[in-house]
Amino acid sequence: MTLPGPAIKGFSSRPSGFLFSDPNTSLILVTLRSVLPDAARTAESALQKVTRDAMRKGMPVNGPERPFWKVKTLEEMTAEEWEALCDGCGVCCLEKFEDVETGEVEVTAIACEYLDTTSSRCLVYGDRTRVAHDCIRLTPERVRDLVWLPETCAYRLIDEGKDLFWWHPLVSGDPETVHEAGISVRGRVTPGPLVPPENG
Q1: pLDDT at 62 exceeding the cut of 60
Q2: Does residue 60 lie in a domain region?
Q3: Is residue 188 within 8 Å of 89, Cβ to Cβ?
Q4: HEC states along 139-185?
Q5: Residues 116 and 123 sit within 8 Å (Cβ to Cβ)
């Protein structure tokens, strides 16, 4: 079974909201909204006000520094930037079957047992390659080799010289937009059986 396409189609730009192009601001907002959503809303509101005031006064609203994903290759990114580039879609965490004769890979709608299908996040992310022995840690080289990576995958897009979509958390400043756009696996996959991580 092939994973169905995005639940919501036809979006070319976010219908509302404010976009922050400064890379540091994007990283901070993404992290803050995941941990302290109320504080993130307050910070975003303050940034919007400052930006609107600057625009009314004819001042530049963006600094000279471009977002890291626009100026760096995958190999040049720091560990923090690499992690932030993940849009949280969860497709990497779906079971896959490879035809040994043709080499074709089918992505199923069955999730890894360690995937939280509500948040599309790994429950054991920091230890995933130890507790899930078939888990593949992405590298720039693997991004180019893994044919099953979706066309919307941020790592694939950057490697192909393309830009991120509006719904990517680094662009929108909101980790929920990947779900709102119907890109993530949330609500579209079957959870695998949970196997408690081994101790030691």
Answers
A1: no
A2: yes
A3: no
A4: CHHHHHHCCCCCCCCHHHHHHCCCCCCCCCHHHHCCCCHHHHCCCCC
A5: yes
Query: What pLDDT score does 39 carry?
Result: 75
Task: With H, G, I as helix, E, B as strand and everything else as coil, classify residue 55.
Answer: helix
- Structurally, how many domains does the chain consist of? 1
Q: Tell me whether residue 191 is in a domain.
A: no
Q: What are phi and psi of 12, to 5 degrees?
A: -115, -20
136-150 exposure pattern, b = at least 16 Cβ within 10 A, e = fewer: eebeeeebeebeebb
Query: Global pTM?
Result: 0.64
Whether 186 has a pLDDT exceeding 60, the answer reads yes
Residue 160, in any domain of the structure: yes
pLDDT in tens, 142-178: 999 998 999 999 999 999 999 999 999 999 999 999 9
**Has residue 1 been placed in a domain?**
no
Which residues form the domain of 66? Answer: 23-180
CB 170 within 8 A of CB 26: yes
